[in-house]
Q: What sequence folds into this?
């Protein structure tokens, strides 16, 4: 009789563990609204002083234990540019690869749908950006300000559509 009781308790424990696992899965955090593929809407965007990219695709994916990986594939007026970085959105500096204008970035998450980005070159801040995902999760707006490498004031407002 004791063996039967033990098997029954083990069976109850397995069912309870499965139920707990299902509950944890179903109550997990909502997906990050930034994660996905974003395409630049050139017509709705403004680039001052310009020129605007011909096209840009940004792929944002989870980076296990490290926040997000950002991969940018842009067709600039003078040719293609691919660059990327991985950042924990904790304000800590991380390297940027493939972009001649920036060698590091500091990203801070302000809310689930808003953040700030500080681009760095040679240890010095260059451009700053504010990011915002629309309430419906279909639009990403990136407003970039600062001074470019040529000493010109920059005020870009890039509008991206989620694919």
A:
């Amino acid at each position: 009789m004791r063996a039967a009781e033990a098997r029954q308790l083990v069976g109850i424990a397995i069912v309870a563990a499965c139920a707990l696992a299902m509950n944890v899965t179903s109550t997990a955090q909502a997906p990050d609204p930034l994660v996905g593929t974003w395409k630049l809407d050139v017509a709705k965007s403004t680039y001052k002083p310009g020129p605007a990219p011909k096209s840009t695709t940004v792929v944002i994916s989870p980076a296990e234990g490290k926040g997000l990986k950002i991969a940018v594939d842009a067709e600039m007026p003078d040719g293609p540019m691919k660059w990327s970085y991985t950042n924990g959105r904790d304000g800590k500096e991380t390297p940027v690869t493939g972009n001649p204008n920036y060698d590091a970035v500091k990203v801070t998450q302000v809310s689930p749908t808003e953040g700030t980005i500080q681009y760095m070159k040679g240890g010095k801040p260059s451009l700053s950006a504010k990011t915002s995902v629309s309430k419906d999760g279909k639009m990403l707006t990136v407003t970039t300000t600062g001074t470019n490498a040529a000493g010109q004031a920059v005020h870009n407002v890039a509008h991206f559509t989620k694919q």
Observations:
- Helices lie at 2-26.
- The chain has two domains: 1-30, 36-162.
- The radius of gyration is 22 Å.
- Residues 1-27 have pLDDT under 50 and may be disordered.
